[in-house]
Amino acid sequence: MSTTDERLRVEYVTDPAAAMSRLASADRFGEYVMYERPGEWVFAADPIGSVELDVHELRVTWEGRTTTSEWEGTPASVLDTSLGTLPLEGRNAYGWINFEFCAWALDATAHLDPRANLAHLMIPRIEVRVGASGVVISGAGPDEVEDIHDLIAASRDSALPKPEPADIRVDPTGYRDRVTTAVEEIRSGLYQKVILSRKVDLPFVVDIPATYRLGRAHNTPARSFLLRLGGLEAAGYSPELVASVDDDRVVTTEPLAGTRAFGLGVEIDTAARADLVRDPKEIVEHAISVQTSFAEITSVADPGTPAVSDFMAVRERGSVQHLASTVRGTLAAGRSSWDALEVLFPSVTASGIPKREGVDSVFRLDGAPRGLYSGAVVTISPTGALDAALVLRAVYQTTEGAWLRAGAGIVGQSRPEREFEETCEKLGSIAPYVVKA
User: Fold this and answer.
1) pLDDT digit string, tens, across residues 118-140
2) How far from chain centre, in Å, is Cα 394?
3) H or E element: which one contains 144?
4) Which of 38, 234, 357, 425 is the most exposed place for a label (fewest CB within 10 A)?
């Protein structure tokens, strides 16, 4: 964002999650997206412009005027071009991308509801950044600046909210039977792996900002987010990147595959870790995910630059621990950040292998549309840098209700009961911290 109106106050923010939650719950800044990356938290609010993409319609808004049109091409190219038409003047963009965004690249549009939302990006008037340098506020008037600092100050030493228990073992979706079907398809040679998920409806209205704060105190995410945008509220603790492209054009993705519970005590956690790193099913699942991610980055990177690091490291993410690797390459000349996102989206660890057949299986066997689950929350800078967090371990809410969702990677060796338990382990990163409104 342009620095001409930035106001810096160096103050030590002891609990950035509490500060972000307080800003969101104040309900005085309109729609917002809060995004945490290592070392920085940003609260972006009060959109002055937006780009919304549905299956058949593109809506571009700037300062209250909306232009509506049909579109053609791929969703990624349409978003890239649409942002380029706006007088951003150095501003960043923030928003969400639904799982169904992938259907064009993977030849799966026949599965889509014609009314489905694909993406919603917004350009904020106000940004509040909290990091090592203090609090930096951009775009706000003098009175708003003081209000923001007062809200941050009021968040200090405030008590954590109390959660409302949610029953995560109820399963009206027939998850085990769907896993059985997928295993049969895999063994018949249709594909190698698919991630099947299940939805858990919540029987009450959720306080999303309070849930974010409580859950963040118990999670160790790669990224986290909190948003209210386009009729959707959500908060989550992303375990991995779908894609990141920095100012040096380095593309990064972080496939996680292979899961065991975590947080049950040192002895139990250590035993689970040992079991994870020697389980053939988990090793195979992870290795083919890394292989696919490497091939995807290779398709948009300079020859010789793609590389894998931290292969099969174990990373702890809230209530679970995963096998993890990092894949990087340098974006080739003529390729954009959106090209990288298009080839890496959806994350291989949330779709399947081969990705086209895996996504087809997801649409057939998951039943209802996924929406934001296994999609991405994104930030886009004026330089073309992009950061896209995989949306898992999250709570979602619209006027129709609130829900959780979790999945597991299904391969030929999968057992339905074990995969169901894995969804419960993953739901354990968010379900115990849901706060009733």
Assistant:
1) 999 999 999 999 998 889 999 99
2) 8
3) helix 142-154
4) 38
